[in-house]
Amino acid sequence: MEIIVPLLFLVLIGVMIWTTVKQNRARKTVNEYQNSLTPGQRVTTGSGMHGVIRRVDERTVDLEIAPEVITTFERRGIVPLPEQLQAMSKNKARPAQQNAEASSAEADAPEEPHREELGAEDDNKNS
């Protein structure tokens, strides 16, 4: 009976340490994502706005949220979606396999249309 209280105390300490480690790991993953942002990448802001990165600075990111509409966000305002977080954590576990899959996916992916092509498509829709 005397051992139950110290045992519960140790379990509580263990849960607190585990939670802290998990939060630090998630924070590190988000920071890595934010530091790897590049122009042309599709992203989501913390408020749910979607866009394509057009310019990246030390602290800010310019997003094109509609044709010719550029907004500036703090880098820390760009967050990975839950699916991206899972992919990033799996990527750490199997980097060689993920890099091979990414290379083949890039080769198969269609090119993103240029701004001029987007404008031409909009003109066709309006006529």
Automatic annotation (TrEMBL):
Pfam (any one): YajC
GO cellular component: plasma membrane
Keywords, alphabetical: Cell membrane, Membrane, Protein transport, Translocation, Transmembrane, Transmembrane helix, Transport
PANTHER family: SEC TRANSLOCON ACCESSORY COMPLEX SUBUNIT YAJC
Biased composition range(s): Basic and acidic residues: 111-127
UniProt similarity note: Belongs to the YajC family.
GO biological process: protein transport
Compartments where located: Cell membrane
Protein name (database record): Preprotein translocase, YajC subunit
Region spans: Disordered: 84-127
InterPro entries named among the record's database cross-references: Preprotein_translocase_YajC
Membrane topology recorded in Swiss-Prot or TrEMBL: Single-pass membrane protein
Principal localisation: membrane
Native organism: Corynebacterium otitidis ATCC 51513
